[in-house]
Amino acid sequence: MSPPLNHRHPTVPQPMGRPAADSIADSAAAESLLRCWVRETGVPRPAGDVLRLDLPATGTAVEVPVAYWSAVGWHRFGQARVAGVGTPLAAPALAALIAVETAAADPAAVADLTGRVSDSTRRVAAFVRARADTPQDPEGTTPFLAGEQALICGHPLHPTPKSREGISDAELRSYSPELRGSFALHWFAADPSVVSADSALGRSAQDLMAELAGDPTTPEGTVLVPAHPWQAKDVLSRPGVRALLDTGLLHDLGPAGPAWSPTSSVRTVYRADAPVMLKFSLGLRITNSRRENMRIELERGTAIDRLLTAGLGAALRGAYPGFEIVRDPAWIGVDAADGSSTGLDVVVRDNPFPGGADSTTAFCMAGLVSVRPDLPAGRSRLADLVHTVAVRTGRPVAEVAEEWFSRYLEAVVTPVLWLYARYGLGLEAHQQNTLVVLDDEGMPVGGRYRDNQGYYFSPTRSAALYPWVPDVGRDLGTYVADEVIDERLVYYIGINNLLGLVGALGSEGLADERALLRRADAALGTLAAEHGDRLGLADVLRTSPTLSCKANLLTRVRGLDELTGPLEAQSVYVDIVNPLAEVHQ
């Protein structure tokens, strides 16, 4: 069993001073680096309460107090220091040592990791400081938007979770969900000959864009295409875009219309009163990748929408009424004459969360489990929910946490795995792509999945979809071998999502991780018995001594962009000890 939790983020004074925010951000960054290093290099649990990391490439060692050791990797650490000397190591210094250890022969990789850790840490400090100074959500913030804006420190097992290369501090204030930014969209008018689009909405994407734009002055006969304002400025330097502007096939109209709010992905924007959300290309390198839409992804979104309409949506509702896929029913983009990307490609996403008394209460899981060092208690929204239920009902916190976990397994994880077993449709359901629907008591009753990038089609089972849409998936870029899909789903659903929730509950002292793992093992066992060979990954998760896990640190050090190249080689994967196998009976 893990030792008792004895570490908390410090109570945050109001208003927050720069040194306190810097310290909190540095501590969070160092913890993330250490978690990554421990997981990706297989560092065992120390015998005592101090972890020693020998780094032979630099002839040094690092010692760090262990405040909480997690069976699933969500450890909590104190201040890292140079062993034998006691010199405190700030996160960038720790990053430099780790980078030399993994990429000593590549000075550029060392500089890249160190710089990105510094950038991410500096931005988290700004978020913490701003949110501590203004802790209350602005009037009119819907529960959905509040959840999208709650991921202050970022992915706890990523070395640079808030790195945003290429964006200024001034731009950050408008474009960051963590700072509750908002902005008008930037509009272009394009000749129809250079516009590509598709829509399953019953009306064209072109008509929808005209409605969303309001009434900008538009050259006659042109089509309106929106852009994120950062992207609008960036694309002007692209030769393909310059050629369109110079020949009059594209017109830069500038900002227009009401303000939209960025969601947790930064590039998807939301308005409570709009029927849709918009997912833009954004050439910033956010974490590991430049977030630009690819046409195959846009086509994948509309294909899935048509598949759901044809019958899969009804089948899913019939089996799991509380779970839905958030649809991407249309897209529009501008084509360059030379075939290069213009960066002006927009996904139209359904908006199921308009706010109001009857609106569904859904939260992004990544934001729900993220600790909130900007608030006095320093704990996550999930911890607040669990404690609130425990106080109201008089039940032990651990009992409520275990029930919350079990309900999440039933409402979210089970339908995702059912879709894969029954229809061969794999969903890349990591915590960022997963929304949990809560009842009035704060307990899970349903879920939503979003992301037109993250669908996989199984060659052995996707034929079950063909009665609705013949050969669906074959031309959408993710029709790949079951072994590849299984590896991805083991990570995204099993490790990131399911074990991530175990770690979140355990590391905040809400429940014993082994008790949660036993519940997960039982739920996966039920699914394995129901679906047999069609869901072999359930048995892999339960019984395999090791699991294949995406290595965010090594992926970053090697400079891989997770959105480009062959699917099999977009990220580094390593084997980690399977904590579920250790509790499996």
Tell me about this structure:
The protein is α+β, with helices and mostly antiparallel strands and about 575 residues long. It has 3 domains: about 20-165, no CATH class; about 170-295, no CATH class; about 320-325 and about 355-585, Transferase(Phosphotransferase), domain 1 (Orthogonal Bundle), CATH 1.10.510.40. The chain contains 17 helices and 23 strands. A hairpin with a 5-residue loop joins strand 9 and strand 10 (about 270). It is globular.
Précis, in short:
With 585 residues, the chain is an alpha+beta fold. 40% of the residues lie in helices and 20% in strands.
Topology:
Blueprint lengths: L17 H24 L8 E6 L4 E9 L7 E2 L3 E2 L8 H13 L3 H27 L9 H6 L15 E2 L3 H7 L7 E8 L4 E5 L5 H9 L9 E5 L1 H7 L3 H8 L3 E13 L5 E3 L5 E5 L1 E5 L2 E3 L3 H25 L3 E3 L4 E6 L5 E10 L11 E3 H5 L11 H13 L3 H27 L1 E3 L6 E5 L5 E6 L5 E3 L24 H26 L5 H19 L4 H8 L2 E5 L1 H6 L15 E5 L1 H5 L2
Parallel strand pairs: 14-20
Antiparallel strand pairs: 1-2, 2-3, 2-4, 5-12, 6-8, 6-9, 7-15, 9-10, 10-11, 11-16, 12-13, 15-16, 17-19, 18-21, 19-20, 22-23
